[in-house]
Design brief:
With about 260 residues, this protein is of the alpha+beta class. About 55% of the residues lie in helices and about 15% in strands.
């Protein structure tokens, strides 16, 4: 592998330091110190084109992030050097892990946060997603936002799965199970409905058959304070983020749910 140039090193380190919240001047100091090794602050300041007080300030910032330990050096040995790049890698990985944990906790708590959100006089949010990519994006987002809670659906599983494919449906089911999201499915009779119903227990789902209304090819889904209308033939998904509308739709849903046949 060819040796990295100074500019390439600067770019790689800068990107890594940005993930930790460290700025460009500190990145420049870090890269320079890697190149020069232990050296005086005066030399660093000269090479960076900054004053010595400014150089000390940059060193102090690196110390805050665990990338330097200048303050701990003995007074008779005041040459400066940064911590090894392996230390930088360790910090970036730790930061990434902490960020993933925060994101996971936020996903888990999203239904409760949305439920406690006071809509007041603000207008409902309505989004229209067109095309298969957008269709699938909002489909998987539903599972994330409903983490540890419940999703309810009503309509045609056959038309929905025919559009997205069984492979994507299985992938979504696995993601929903991972997030511990239960599903109540109120769907028209079909071969796909029977296939789903067989695995209800292990896939955190309860299926009931919708027989006493005229069949339609779309699907409605409700979770948290959102209602999503799926039209797979366009293809198009309409997401309505409004607690009042979702509560109304859920009321209709519960009536149909009680009247529907068990699988």
């Amino acid at each position: 592998m060819p040796k990295l140039s100074q500019n390439e090193m600067q770019e790689i380190v800068s990107e890594s330091l940005k993930k930790l919240g460290v700025g460009e001047p500190e990145a420049a100091l870090y890269v320079l110190s890697l190149k020069l090794g232990p050296t005086s602050v005066a030399t660093l300041a000269t090479n960076l084109g900054v004053s010595r007080p400014q150089a000390y300030k940059l060193i102090s910032e690196l110390e805050k992030y665990g990338l330097a330990d200048f303050a701990a050096r003995k007074k008779f040995s005041r040459s400066f050097s940064v911590e090894s790049p392996s230390r930088l890698q360790e910090l970036v990985r730790r930061h990434q892990k902490e960020t993933e944990q925060i994101d996971q906790r936020l996903s888990w708590s999203m239904p409760d946060l949305l439920a406690s959100y006071q809509q007041g006089s603000s207008l409902a949010s309505v989004k229209i997603m067109e095309g298969k990519d957008q269709f699938l994006k909002i489909f998987f987002q539903c599972a994330e936002e409903a983490a540890d809670k419940e999703i309810v659906v009503a309509g045609s599983a056959q038309d929905f799965i025919a559009f997205i494919s069984w492979a994507e449906e299985r992938r979504w089911i696995n993601e929903r199970i991972r997030l511990n999201v239960r599903l109540r499915a109120l769907i028209f009779p079909s071969a796909d409905t029977e296939t789903l119903a067989v695995s209800d227990e292990k896939e955190l789902r309860e299926t009931r058959i919708l027989r006493d209304i005229a069949p339609f090819s779309s699907l409605v889904m409700m979770y948290a304070n959102k209602t999503v209308l799926w039209q797979p033939h366009a293809p198009m998904a309409i997401q309505i983020e409004d607690g009042y509308i979702t509560d109304m739709m859920r009321s209709f849903y519960e009536v149909l749910w009680k009247r529907a046949e068990l699988k």
